[in-house]
């Protein structure tokens, strides 16, 4: 009898996947870490019950969380990533001409399991001389560090356990402190279908510190409900005002598969039934 993985979405619905092979299955100090093979989506990183990324669609989430904010800044030199242990976001970020990228991931097991079983997701990102990987609590790191960054990206799990503070006003205030005067922040902010309250909370909390707050959407086939949201907080630059030619010239050599100038603006201008996520923008 085949084993199935059930990723619960909102009340009364879930995505289910047949597991053809379990490649890794251990419990860290923080969570249940699995890498499994599924028929349609290939290898999947699963934390507790939630699908984090798969080798077939990781590019969508990682391109959208990396490039839209990085392109919003005219000349990012330094990047901070909180979470993101699979390294897919780091790999996208490093496509830009950065001087350094600090990634702070709380759970070494996530990094190790990905490197061992889905190495295509991080590629060479962890070996890049610009990368400084720190295995520690990102919330505490942002409180203490003296470093300053042009762009900060929060690649967290859903808000439970150690990631709960990563959706709070205090954390966004601390990120505001570590960002340059024209710094840009972006975070994954959950499902527009069943985490509407979470999106509203993230927008409110970021808005306490950042004058510009924009929520944008993308379709990630392996997250429950498929539609996903990201919220950007910015001190000076507004992603809505970035011109198409400017976007194209910044990313054309990257060979991207989802993020383009058209997708940048489409993501910030969702169809009418989703406008509630951007209400007030
Ligand atoms: N982090 C956000 C995953 C949220 C998915 N939620 C779910 N499947 N219920 C993704 C990490 C990718 N680097």
Shape assignment: globular
Strand order, largest beta sheet? 9-8-7-10-11-13-12
Number of strands: 13
Number of helices: 8
For the record, give the distance between the C-alpha atoms at the N and C termini, rounded to a whole number. 50 Å
Question: Which percent range fits the helix content?
Answer: 25-40%
Can you give a write-up of this model?
The chain has a seven-stranded mixed β-sheet, sandwiched between helices. The chain has a four-stranded antiparallel β-sheet with strand order 3-4-5-6, covered by helices on one side. Strands 1-2 form a two-stranded antiparallel ribbon. The protein has helices spanning 58-72, 88-93, 108-117, 138-144, 169-178, 196-207, 244-251, 261-268, and strands at residues 3-8, 14-19, 21-27, 32-38, 42-47, 50-54, 78-83, 100-105, 131-135, 149-155, 179-190, 212-219, 227-234. The longest helix has 15 residues, at 58-72. 27% of the residues lie in helices and 32% in strands. By secondary structure, the chain is α/β, with parallel strands linked by helices. 1-{4-[(3-aminopropyl)amino]butyl}guanidine (AG3) binds at residues 7, 50-53, 61, 84, 86, 88-89, 155, 157-158, 188, 223-224.
């Amino acid at each position: 009898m085949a084993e199935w993985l059930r990723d619960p979405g909102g009340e009364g619905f879930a995505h289910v996947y047949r597991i053809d092979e379990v490649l890794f299955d251990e419990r860290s100090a923080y969570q249940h870490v699995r890498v499994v093979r599924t028929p349609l989506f290939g290898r999947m990183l699963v934390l507790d019950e939630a699908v984090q990324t798969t080798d077939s669609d990781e590019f969508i989430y990682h391109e959208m969380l990396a490039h839209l904010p990085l392109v919003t800044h005219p000349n990012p030199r330094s990047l901070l990533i909180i979470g993101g242990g699979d390294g897919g976001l780091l790999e996208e970020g490093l496509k830009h001409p950065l001087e350094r990228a600090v990634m702070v991931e709380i759970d070494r097991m996530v990094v190790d399991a990905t490197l061992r079983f889905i190495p295509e997701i991080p590629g060479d990102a962890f070996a890049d001389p610009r990368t400084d990987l720190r295995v520690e609590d990102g919330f505490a790191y942002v409180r203490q560090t003296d470093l300053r960054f042009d762009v900060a990206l929060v690649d967290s799990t859903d808000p439970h356990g150690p990631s709960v503070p990563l959706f709070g006003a205090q954390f966004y205030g601390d990120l505001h402190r570590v960002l340059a005067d024209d710094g840009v922040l972006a975070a994954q902010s959950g499902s527009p279908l069943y985490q509407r309250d979470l999106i509203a909370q993230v927008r409110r909390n970021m808005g306490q510190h950042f004058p510009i707050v924009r929520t944008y959407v993308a379709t990630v086939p392996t997250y429950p409900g498929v539609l996903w949201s990201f919220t950007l907080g910015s001190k000076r630059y507004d992603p809505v005002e970035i011109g198409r030619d400017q976007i194209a010239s910044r990313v054309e050599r990257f060979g991207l598969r989802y993020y383009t100038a058209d997708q940048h603006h489409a993501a910030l201008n969702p169809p009418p039934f989703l406008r509630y996520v951007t209400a007030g923008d």
